[in-house]
């Protein structure tokens, strides 16, 4: 639907006061959200206040509620937890406590509240909002405020952001802190895998999730765990035998390591707890395996927030301020959340009610309903895990007589191996023979192709690079030889993982010494995604990219901006440059310009990150996104093979445009798009799309770095309903 762009410059916060608080359990990324609220609020000329120690600070008042400046949130982006504190608050649960809180807010003219917390914190905020006018009237009757104040501060606006490592809030794909918690879990699993393989051990890993199994499920998917226990999907009767048989089979296949992941709230089908100790005792008694328990506990809340959480929280914080500016007395309290790669607003209480429905379904033993209520992403994670972790006996598998080849092309990217593993196992489950091509199209032409089995791809999810091997050679010069190989091996379908340089691994944070500017060069070819999103995640001052042309005047303006910044208490700067953003304004040129112009004010350092960005183990996001889109792609291939097979001829006739598709994310959904359609949308010279969705986020980096800029908020402002979020298509959440 075409619509006129709407720009946030038309929204003013003049005369408004916004307060931000964090409540409930802490989560990595909360500080990024706090920073975004403060800076966006100040940017639109609103007064912004911290409320220290959550609702307790609101009730206590005094020094717990303080006005803040731009510099107040400097250098907190990369800090875990919450710098403004969080506390459980019994007084706020009473009307007397809320009456005192209302008085403290009115004293400072605060009628806009941004609450970062879980469903309990947000429910409390909504009750506070509903009682607000009554509380003010009561304060007036007691002579604490006058009639003018009752009229002036007549209604309270509330916007919530969900900060919870459990990802237990319905209506949002990812809550702030979840991705970082997954990083902590996967770091531990990767470390355990090295020691366990030395000794042939079984590890039982207990992760957080008293009422929600998201962390357990996704980490099981990300590390290829042998078994997972979650509260939403208890194992069937007799699970003890099934699990022990599976562990024995894996050990017999020379698998030296078994990993079992248990959510702390795991239960059996009779609602009785399944503890990590119980699982360990069972394995030791039945199988005699050397078995150890590791309980992660609060480690999962710790550490620096991931790039994903920093970007998510920054986007949510900006969206929260926009929602407060646009709110009217009739606007219900809302939460800002993520759907695919878009920020959306949802009625707070609809989300809370659906979240509570999940718990009710579990309490009543309606487990399939609980899984469905958790959302499409959770359901898809569970189905994918079941598909990839348990191999059916050969006699139970269908036989299609189709041969499918899998290959990697282009630059190696973290997550490729997880995608290959998923393709092989889903393909075998569908009844196909799967062939692995070594060294991309070049290897294909040379006949480097072999059948690959279920066990061959065990343990691949956590491996970096490309185990199959990949080369940047394009297929054009080998087409005839590749066609010969396809005929020789009777290949009916190809699954190609790679493409234009794909790499989603940058977590660049520079918190340097006093008065220093870091200039960092990122990879990406002509695509500025890494530089732009890295800049947003690291709180950079500038990011130079090919998609947005710049000249010497802009470089000069950036230097002057940094010089002014160094006169405040913020005394460090960060500049990112995409490797191909401009052939003349090189990293060296920019470094020399900044060094010369900043003489006497700041000094400079430069760093070219290079191929380290492609190295290392894949992140939880890369593992799971690779796994899920690969599984989806193989199911699509199966469907197409069945549709185009002519039984009489014994051949597959696939010569239509929709038989060659690219699977990727469009706005909120994963979409199969015919490659023929992509021709008109692609800049082949620079190997990038003509339209880049992430360019819409570019102004956010500039706003949070205190540059005046234009920001299109056309996609914001519509309050949606939980039931209306996409259900048919899997979103890009992990």
TrEMBL record:
- Which PROSITE patterns does this chain map to? PHOSPHOFRUCTOKINASE (PS00433)
The reactions it catalyses are: beta-D-fructose 6-phosphate + ATP = beta-D-fructose 1,6-bisphosphate + ADP + H(+)
Keywords of the record: Allosteric enzyme, ATP-binding, Cytoplasm, Glycolysis, Kinase, Magnesium, Metal-binding, Nucleotide-binding, Transferase
All residue ranges annotated as the Phosphofructokinase domain in the record? 18-323, 501-637
Give the InterPro entries listed for this entry: 6-Pfructokinase_euk, ATP_PFK, Phosphofructokinase_CS, Phosphofructokinase_dom, PKF_sf
GO annotations of cellular component type: 6-phosphofructokinase complex; membrane
Classification via Gene3D superfamilies:
3.40.50.450, Phosphofructokinase domain
What GO molecular function annotations does the UniProt record carry, in alphabetical order? 6-phosphofructokinase activity; AMP binding; ATP binding; fructose-6-phosphate binding; identical protein binding; metal ion binding; monosaccharide binding
User: Pathway it belongs to?
Assistant: Carbohydrate degradation; glycolysis; D-glyceraldehyde 3-phosphate and glycerone phosphate from D-glucose: step 3/4
GO BP term, example? fructose 6-phosphate metabolic process
Q: Which cofactor does it need?
A: Mg(2+)
Q: Which family does it belong to?
A: Belongs to the phosphofructokinase type A (PFKA) family. ATP-dependent PFK group I subfamily. Eukaryotic two domain clade "E" sub-subfamily.
* Name recorded for this polypeptide: 6-phosphofructokinase
EC id: 2.7.1.11
Q: Which domain of life is it from?
A: Eukaryota
Q: Organism source for this protein?
A: Catharus ustulatus
One of the Pfam families matching this protein, by short name:
PFK
